[in-house]
Amino acid sequence: MGTYIVKRIMTIIPIFLLATLLTFGMIHLSPVDPAEAYLSAAHIQPTDEILEQKRQEFGLDQPLFVQYMNSVVKIIQLDFGTSYVSNKSVWEEVSSRLPATIQLTVGSLLIAILVSVPIGFLAGIKKNGGIDHFSRFLSFLGASIPSFWLGYLLIFFFSVKLDLFPVEGTGTFAHLVLPSVTLALPLIALYTRLLRASVIENLQEPYVLFARTRGIHEKIILGKHVLRIAISPMITGLGMNLGNLMTGAIIVEAVFSWPGFGRYFIEAIFNRDVPVIQCYILLSAGLFLISNLIVDIIQMYIDPRISRKGRQYQ
Q: Where in this chain does the record put each ABC transmembrane type-1 domain (predicted)?
């Protein structure tokens, strides 16, 4: 198990380096001149002399390979440069906003798991029953409604009409409810479908028939064996969505004025704040890789055959 984990970690390094290379290439292929973007954000009239001075200051006059290596070294040190707008360290700015995004991500994941696991499991067991029809409707609803429209709809009913939750901002549990539900509904739709299909498939497997033949109680078969194996695709989907939630809650943060990382990224795009944009892309890649690594470890713990298969194909 330890060898498998180490090898999975080692595969992350070249993938992340490739992400840094792609990010570096996109920034340099972009028509936006970082020196000109800095002067524009600082409201300084660009002249040839000032532009040349800023290019030297940013190291843009050096060969591309040298620029890339310097960029990688700084990224390893969590040095993403200075924001063109605030003149503060990008990492400090991001670090101050990440807790709000993490809070929103954890809240939405908890809601998605607590709702989709029982509904998806019962829908798979009682196929074509009432709970199954409800799960299909819920999945259709979650997959059809855009996040921004759902957010405004929840604000209209629960904040404006019923005055139950705040309209925007953060600070209390009440502020967290509506944005978390908005983010969770598409996940509920996805996880419910995955778990339902997996439960139906596993109920037809020979091990279920053998367990019933041996006289094992149905609750033990369903809870200890079927659910443990059937939940595997859902955990995989969780790993795919965790990185996206951490960095992709842009629309929801904008709708609810949530002071998170996604909203900061939107502001950086409008201000052409290149260091912040670079940090967002690389942090997204890193979070995606780490979340998938964590999910692989969890999957291996649930089903040890994964690590044995990995050794078999080496």
A: 98-299
